[in-house]
């Protein structure tokens, strides 16, 4: 019975590929000419009925040609050109305006991008506009090299940085800055102060695969789960006297959750917390230049007994802290809290690094998957619904059988790198490091 169930599962994962004619190109030049002679949309339609087996070919070169074609088309797109030149992007009935300032020379791999979220929140538009203007220069003074972007919250409500429409707008903003601004997609950072800090708490766990690191200052977590932050270094800063909504204690409490997760997964959940000595809500020194700030030496001890606090000194410059990190788009282990998701990012399913699932998670649903390239092994430790695993040669060796372990079963299978998966994943995020070459869809039996 077990063998029959496994066979049925594997057959179901390959249904789409088997339903197609899988053409084998005679050489890589045939594939390159196909890409060059067709638009991306034409290729997308073509591979739905006539896919191409790319095994044995230079996959990275094909990816490079495909990305060049995409960049050429998108930078000539009038709608995208207007978004970039007018500094205004719309989704649904919401519009995100933003300012952008470039400092320094462009590095070989592209500029780092710092996106800074302003304070304010549930207030008149004039107040939020004032906060937006302040954020246009607030962290900019600490940027030595890079592009500094300050978006205007899309509403005037308390959650102005993380209403449903915000998430696809952040995606579009980042994609445009990569296409037109020469940004390195592996060096995109998010910062926020006060209501902007609230935004950092909500945005980063819901779309963590976009960020290299994040800084949260003087915000409140509003009980967001930290489980999705395994790959995003997270800096938390708050004033010792920021008592409103217990932001000070809530900040340290969130850091404690990250600390426990880091103990469970030692190579993940990098974080640091600074409680600024004697500072109130609006006076956190998170962008000092050439000096250290006075902080509470042991914030965890302070949280338990404030009278036992001791002073310490630390470099609390948020830009400097973030800049030491680069996004790793292909981690070998993922823990995904499925309920912490921005379903508005895509109508075709939720994306999390190299995983995909539908937009209807079960209550408290988690997915945990580990990939061991040496063993060519994919181990699915937790899953409750269908999931798709996207793969590249840096993750598994397509030339050898790939072993899958899940639900007490083990099986091996050979996957074919193919053009359809490359085009599908290119269009999902417009990110060269999330172009994958093959996929494996696992169907959960009820």
What does this structure look like?
By secondary structure, the protein is α/β, with parallel strands linked by helices. It folds into two domains: 180 residues, no CATH class; 237 residues, 3-Layer(aba) Sandwich (Rossmann fold). The chain contains 13 helices and 21 strands. It has an eight-stranded mixed β-sheet, sandwiched between helices. Helix 3 packs parallel to helix 5. The longest helix is centred in the middle third of the chain and has 18 residues. The radius of gyration is 23 Å and the shape is globular. The N terminus is likely disordered. It comes from Microscilla marina ATCC 23134. This is Carboxylic ester hydrolase. One of its GO terms (molecular function) is hydrolase activity.
Concise synopsis of the structure shown:
With 446 residues, the protein is of the alpha/beta class.
Secondary-structure-based class equals alpha/beta
Strand order of the largest sheet: 3-4-6-5-7-8-9-10
Corresponding CATH architecture of the largest domain: 3-Layer(aba) Sandwich
Q: Could you give the distance between the termini?
A: 16 Å
CATH superfamily of the largest domain: Alpha/Beta hydrolase fold, catalytic domain
Portion in helices: 25-40%
Strand content: 25-35%
User: What is the approximate shape?
Assistant: globular
* Alpha plus pi helix count: 13
CATH topology of the largest domain: Rossmann fold
> Total number of β-strand segments?
21
Low-confidence parts, pLDDT < 50 over ≥5 residues? 1-19
The domain count comes to 2
Largest sheet: 8 strands, mixed
